[in-house]
Amino acid sequence: MEKIRKNKKVIAVFLIPAVLIYLCFELIPVVMSVYFSFNDWPGLQAVPLKFVGFKNYSNLFHNAVFLKSLQNVLIYVVVSVILQVPIGFGLGLLIHHFKKGQRFFKAAFFIPMILSVTAVALLWNFIYFPTDKGILNSLLIKIGLGNYIQQWLVNPKTSLICLIVVSTWTSVGYYMIICLAGLTSIPDSVLEAGELDGATGWKKIWNLYIPMLWEPLKMSTIMVITGVLKIFDTVYILTPTGGTSNCTIVPALLMYNEAYRYGHYGTGSAIATVIFVLSAAVSIFSLKLMNQKESIEY
Amino acid sequence: MKTGKKVLGAVLAAAMALSSITPVFAADKVKITFMSRDSGDTPMAKVYEDQIAAFMEENPDIEVQNDSVYEESAYNNKLKVALSTGETPNIFYYPAIAGLKEWAQNGVLLDLTDSLNEDEEWKNTFLDGALDTYDLSAYGVDGIYALPNELNVDAIFYNKALFEKAGIEKTPETMDELYEDIDKLVAAGITPFGVGGKNTWVMGHIFNNILAKRIGRDGIIKLGTGEKKWTDDDVVECLQITKDLKDKGAFAEGFEGMDYNTQMNQFLTGEVAMISHSSPIIPEMFNSESEILDDISFFAFPYFEDKPEYKDTHVVYTSGWMLSGTMSDEEKEATLKLVKYMTSKESIQERMNAAMRVAPYKDIDAPEDAPQIFKDMVEYTGTITDSVGEYFDYDTCSTLVDTSRNGILNMMLSDSAENTAQTIQADVDANRPQS
């Protein structure tokens, strides 16, 4: 048995199904998408691809809507990283610290994560409803801030941040769970030794928890970045047309419109490729930045 | 144990062998696919299911697969994937006219001219001029590429009780009368129009009616073919009239951020006096539990006194069935058989009775037990002699629908009519295919 297990041919045979699935559903579509991006195609089998070189890319980077979508998604990424990871990990640390009601709070913060995006969008539609009947607006009126009531999802100044709030509310539970999982793997002896050396309160968080949770923090940050760069569902349901003056348009929504609504498959594929390259570049940059600080081995 | 395994092996092998034989038997049947937007529990979906079942019973050599999808984006995605893989459904629906040009040119759609000419009786069941809707010769492709199936007739639906409360004795025929009525409703503390601006088509429909009443059918077609520009004075004027409605207090505060469901809820609970909509809203309203259904009626979109020549131009959206252009002879024969069955007088009447949809066929009457508003709508449809669809139906620029509707919403919020016209024209110039 041991001999069979060490046989490389046997290992290769068992790996074939996984490799085939990866090739068919991950690698080949990515390569095909890049290939399509250098062609014009109206989405009809009867029409052959027409090679156009970098024309689709050139058009994209001269397209004000696409540039606006890049600007929006980069704001989305930066604000999401600033909000989602610290809030998620902060909640994790709080729940870990206050043992009472731990199960309840874990479930309460994680529930938004398992709700369908449509349900979440409906809920937030009630909150952001544009008149004084909206939950947020009526709350503002009740606390005497009636001057600040808004058409939250329509006003170009507020709509993008409103979407970021929804994404943050949905996602923080996930990063809280990652933090809690990381915390359980820290030996008590290390924490006790730190406390004996005077690490309490913020010092404990800064000098013990953060260095020891550095790997989960890095992973969470990359997940936020890659997740937000391809964000589609929340934006599509809350602001289906990309908002007033394209204030909430993001590349994935534009890609969907170009390919499936307008029949510009080459342009859609070029946007998909840009999202892919951007995700890879931003992730590598973030990893390099975060790798400058070494995590603590214990 | 060993015997058990052998038996199991034999059973599995037999099952596999049988499954490979089954297609041979199934191959005797001609399989065709039907794809509409009516699926699930809607009354129309039920009628389609029954009619397809009855057709298959009459034609045991034909198997019809109903691939209908209710949700719009899911339907469009499914159709586009089917077209890109060459698996075009035999009968399907798509909301476009000029947009069909590329499909027609590339053989995706069947030219129905010969089939219609070969069967005069069938051809004559359609309302006069209805088949012209899908005659694409104006766009450079000769032929009729779809069969009109439903008519969505635009009108203003209103609440009689709220009109009475505001002291309005008769429905407006001209825009000036409509403006007076808006003033009366506002003075009585009633919001004149319910508008779910977040669903950009709602304002788009209002603008389309204004366009129809100011530049007429020819003007709209010229706009689509590029003979007219969005920046022309008369088109900018239409945008400005649409924007001015807001300043006249026609819409509720914050309507730009409300959705269509809110608009309908406001109308059906008697919060607002009017909505601009089309005939399919009638069954939708009667499927609701609204207590004001008896108070609802409709009137034609008012005309402009300085443009009497377009008084009788009405907005009617035609929904059609397209047939695949890549069928084998056998499939084509079976598909035409099905489509003729579905467009027979009995089938159409059955669908109208069940789902209250206005159909572009001769000699079809509203059912006796239908609500009065539907009977009135069928009668009103019969009086229409000059109709026009959505402005983007006549344009081959696929991005126009979104750019124009988003532009109109931006205009209602802050942008000027001139800037909106320039933005739309720039999009058309950049994205309209050069033929």
Automatic annotation (TrEMBL), chain A:
GO terms for cellular component: plasma membrane. Keywords: Cell membrane, Membrane, Transmembrane, Transmembrane helix, Transport. It is found in: Cell membrane. GO terms for biological process: transmembrane transport. Residues 70-286 form the ABC transmembrane type-1 domain. It holds the Pfam family BPD_transp_1. Its main location: membrane. It is a multi-pass membrane protein. Signal peptide: none annotated. It comes from the Bacteria. Belongs to the binding-protein-dependent transport system permease family. This is sn-glycerol-3-phosphate transport system permease protein ugpA. It comes from Blautia obeum. The gene is ugpA_7.
From TrEMBL, chain B:
Residues 1-26 form the signal peptide. The keyword Lipoprotein does not apply. Keywords: Signal. It holds the Pfam family SBP_bac_1. This is Extracellular solute-binding protein. It comes from Blautia wexlerae.
